[in-house]
Structures are given as structure tokens and as C-alpha cells.
Amino acid sequence: MEMKEITYEDYLEFIKTHNFAIIENVKLEIGKNWEIKELEPKNFELETTTVWSFPKRGRWATHYLNSKYRGNWAPQIPRNLILKYTQPGDTVLDQMVGSGTTAIECKLLGRNCIAVDINIDAIMITIDRLAPLNAIDKLPKCTIKTYVGDARNLNLIKDESIDLIATHPPYVNIIPYSKIEGDLSNIKDVDKYVEEMKKVAKECFRVLKPGKHCAILIGDTRRHKHYVPVAFRVMQAFLEVGFILKEDIIKLQWNMKSTREKWAGEYDFYKIAHEHLFVFRKPEKNEDLNKLKESLKKV
Questions:
Q1: Partners of 254 in beta bridges
Q2: Which residues does 162 contact at the CB level (< 8 Å), separation at least 6?
Q3: What is the pLDDT of residue 182?
Q4: For residue 164, which of 19, 43, 101, 267 sits 20 to 30 Å off, Cα-Cα?
């Protein structure tokens, strides 16, 4: 699949015949005059450690509308990443944008954004959630572009043009978001999933500027009661294409629908209640990595 831009005009045509978009058989309303009660988070502070926990998902701006969108990341995560690794006017890519959380934060913080998803319904939700913000003059100026496309083929994005990648991939059929051919969320085989995520990693490396950062939030699973370290296998795939691991942040999970439904009662294993937020760095051109490699050998 090649990228195709979806404009606000396309969205207006869509809502003429649709008052909702469908994600994982869940209907999410779109096309209404959404109210914004809070434009910014209250008492927000940047994270300072490698353990992040957000018991209450942010509800400022239009984030509150996406409580039924399973698996989307808390807006505190992209907000932290954007403020840590970019400057106003920089360009952020989320190639698995889902309900538009990253794009909303870019709009609030004055960063340009390229928002991509394989599911056009997800893009319609993203545009819908951005619409009320576009009408607020006091927000910093930026450009948000929305595309239907595959994270493994970002053909409309130029080499070394992105300042930050911040994305939350689906992993190993935990939540099958659509029945679209090629949707990564439908892959059940772990080896195949890691193989496809390596293609994602290669595209990330291609479009990211040297010295800039790529952050992915990904978790693990269980098969036959045994732990399957999906996250670390994906981490290795990103390292193999040339990235350097900057951070491994443990993000605690709260209010997990699958955990509540499947793992009620007592079991002979621990419930998985965390994900890994890997922050990779693309080396600078001609950067000498020998000192880093030598130091790693001595650990």
C-alpha cells in the first residue's frame, strides 16, 4: 500500500454519510460539534525517571472522546516525548496514529505532524478530533498532514526529513483493529510479526534525521501461560537496522480490558502490567560509535 493524503475536505464528504467510524467493531462518533473544556493538562510535569505511570488518562482537548478506542496511548506519553526531543516547528511522525493522540499533542504544542494509519476510519477519527482545535486561533501555528498508508512503505516522506518518530504499534494480535490486508494487528505469529516490524524499523531509519529520536511503545504477551518477550525482539530488530538504544522506559498499564476479562481470579503466573517505551537514536553522519561499542562490552 502506498500513502494517500486524506484531507479535511475528504473528511467532510465522509461525515455526510457516516456519523461514526469503526475500530475493532466499536463505533466511535464523529462529525459533532465537540466541546473543549480544558485545552491543556492540569499540573503537568515532565517525567524524569525510566518508570512512567498514568493511572488517569489525560482528558484535555479532544482526548476525552477516545476512551472507547482500545490500546491508544495516554496523551501524557507523546507530550513528554515531544517536549523532550523536539522544538516548536519541528516535524513529528506517527505512522500508526490510531485515534490521533500524537497529532492532537503536536497541534497543541506547535509541532508539525505527519499522521499515518492503514485504516481510513482511524484517519477520519484523527481529523475529527483535530477539527475543534483548528478553530482556536491562540494555538501555535503548525501543519498536520493525514494519510492512509502502511508504516512499512512511507513513500511520500523524504529521506531524513523527520525530527521525531513517536508511535504505538499494535502487537501480535492482542487487539485486531481491522480486517484490512496488511494490518499488523492481525499477525498472530510472533516471528512473522517481528519480521514485519523490522520493515517498519527500516522505514523509520530512512525518514529520520541523523541524531534524532524514534520512540515506540510496545508490550509483551503470553502463550500457553509462558511469557513471550515481543518487545525485546522488536527492540533487537530496530538495533539491527542501525538505531542506538537511548532509553528503555517502563510504562505501567492501568484499566486493561483484556486483563479484566481474561485473567480474573488466580493463576500460576503474574499478569503483565507494563509496556516498554523504547527511545532509539539515529547516529549522526560519520559518528564514531567505537567508544559506545567498547563501553557496552565492558558492562
A1: none
A2: 91, 92, 93, 114, 207, 208, 209, 212
A3: 86
A4: 43
